[in-house]
Amino acid sequence: MALPEDQNKPFHIVAVVGSLRKDSYNRALLKEAIAAAPEGVTIEFFDQLADMPFFNQDLEDIETPAVALAFKEAIRQADGLLVVTPEYNSGLPAVLKNAIDWTSRGAPSVFKNLAVGIMGTSPGALGTSKVQQQLKQSLSGLGAYPLAAPDFVLPLYKNQFDDEMKLSDPKTVTRITNYLNRLRELGLCLNTIRHPA
Predict the structure, then answer these.
(1) In 3-state terms, what secondary structure has residue 153?
(2) Reduced to 3 states, what is the DSSP secondary structure of residue 124?
(3) DSSP strand pairing (80-84 vs 11-17)
(4) DSSP character at residue 91
(5) Segment 13-41, tens digit of pLDDT
(6) Could you give the CA distance from residue 124 to residue 121 in angstroms, rounded to a whole number?
(7) Beta-carbon count within 10 A of 110 CB
(8) CB-based contacts of 50, cutoff 8 Å, min separation 6
(9) pTM of the prediction?
């Protein structure tokens, strides 16, 4: 798939974090990603996952929660999705899986042909490699295109952030910028399908 001619077009990403903790390292990682975004790339943090009730079709049959509709619309309007998530017990955080379950409902799917980046940090040596594979499987099943390897996995987070929750190694910041550039390139290609002229 070739890049479209207008490669300088602004690229807008909606981002979510799979942790609700205010001082989460993954929230700090998203802040660093927003700061490190390449020129022309903007990242909007959708910070309302805690407001979504657990998915229940009985509730959906009455009325889809406004926050679920808002997240779906944010994805529909964006050029790409960025998920920054920890790994809980080798798997997906419940709040993130719940948001995907709500947003996947209906047709056409907002995930179809959507470029998705996945980042994460954890205290362990393997980082968030397991949850990233699970997330890729889930999103691919919905028609999305998670960014292929190399993945952005940041292990041993206490060695990566300083006391102010800033990344301490400039090379890591460069990795983020490069990763977002790759997400932008994938998204530009897919958006010719998602939003045909």
Answers:
(1) strand
(2) coil
(3) parallel
(4) B
(5) 999 999 999 999 999 999 999 999 999 99
(6) 9
(7) 23
(8) 20, 95
(9) 0.94
